[in-house]
Amino acid sequence: MIFEENFSDNESRLLGEIAPSRKRSFSWRLIAVIATSALLCGIIILALVYHFKREAMVEQRLEVLSASKIQQQLEMPQPLHDWLVSLDSVDERVVVNKDTVVNDIPLHIYVPLNMAPHMEVGREIAKNPGTALLFFEAADVRADNGKIVGAFVLKGKPLSLGLSKRGYCAIIDSVVYVGVADNSPLFEEATDKEGDFFRQYPLVDKGSLVQNELKNKSIRRGLCDIDNHIAVVETQTRESLHDFAQALIDIGTFNAIYLVGGDAMGWSIDEDGNGYEIGDWSNRKHKNISFIVWTK
User: DSSP labels for 139-160?
Assistant: First the structure.
């Protein structure tokens, strides 16, 4: 059979399937890879943005909750509020005492009125209390070398440096500051203004309990800011620091740091004006023993 083809001599014809262009296929694959990579990068970026934004929101919410907790602490009716307010009308330089029981823990509260405290180092104040109405051991002393533990400033002179405990007390221009901080500008201010400064275990920070590593039980003492009044609170029974700190919160303490407890030396004037010893005065004390002192 003869097929007749209508082609001229100058025409050409391709037989079979047309082979695809490798260059064009490569271009489409490259575009697909780039697009996929861009999509993945976009997803990762969005995920990171969401993550950091969520963290910021959580942090902001925690700050709001913390501020709200502090405000609630300030607004809560405090069990000692009326008693402390009544002390504002007292004009004498006296130490007012109060006994109370919180969470089955008997507490004795010393409130020095119309007096600014100061720090003393050495046993001279114990040998001769003189005009002292109230004093307690303040900073800890190392057993190995007898040096004061943590930063300590006496009348503007630094006697010890270092951050071993986050709680602090500063006495500047007759004002007592009690708080919790790693670095407090009050250390430098006490140095500049011939004030006093010492470090101790933190107990209460803005109405919240501070956990401490000490788990044993002992007679506990704390220097407290209760309803804008500075007070020393002492347990009448052996307690853990945790239970003591919780009891301080329950009586309305806003900030508090530890004072040397156990059989540490102390002194107070009773209602009749007679001084009496607190703790054990028979043990030999190191020359660097320190006291927070209120005098006439």
Answer: S-B-TTT-PBPS-EEETTEEEE
What gap in Å lies between CA 86 and CA 83, rounded to an integer? Answer: 5
Within a 13 Å sphere around the CA of 177, how many CA atoms are in the beta-carbon half?
A: 19
Contact between 228 and 255 (Cβ < 8 Å) = no
Calpha distance 281→43 (Å, rounded):
72
- Cα–Cα dist 147/157, whole Å: 15
Token digits of residue 221: 């003492």
DSSP bridge partners of 276: 268
What single-letter amino acid sits at 29? Answer: R
The contacts of residue 52 (CB under 8 Å, 6+ apart) are: none
Q: Are β-strands 229-235 and 290-295 bridged in parallel, bridged antiparallel, or unpaired?
A: unpaired
Q: Which residues contact 120 (CB under 8 A, 6 or more apart)?
A: 135, 154, 290, 291, 293
Q: Side-chain half-sphere of 164: how many Cα atoms within 13 Å?
A: 16
148: closest CA among 126, 171, 119? 119
- Tokens describing residue 45: 């970026």
* Torsion angle (degrees, nearest 10) of CA 178, 181, 182, 186: -50
Q: What does each C-alpha distance from 183 to 39, 156, 179, 223, 274 come to in angstroms?
A: 47, 17, 11, 19, 40
Cβ–Cβ < 8 Å for 167, 186: no
Over residues 17-31, the pLDDT tens digits come to 445 555 555 577 777
Rounded CA gap, 241 and 247, in Å?
10
Q: What whole-number distance in Å separates Cα of residue 232 and Cα of residue 225?
A: 9
Distance between CA atoms of 260 and 282, rounded to whole angstroms?
16
pTM of the model: 0.74
Give 71-105 pLDDT, tens digit per residue.
555 555 678 999 999 999 999 999 999 999 999 99
Give the neighbor-by-neighbor strand order of the sheet with 152-154: 157-160, 152-154, 196-200, 167-172, 175-180
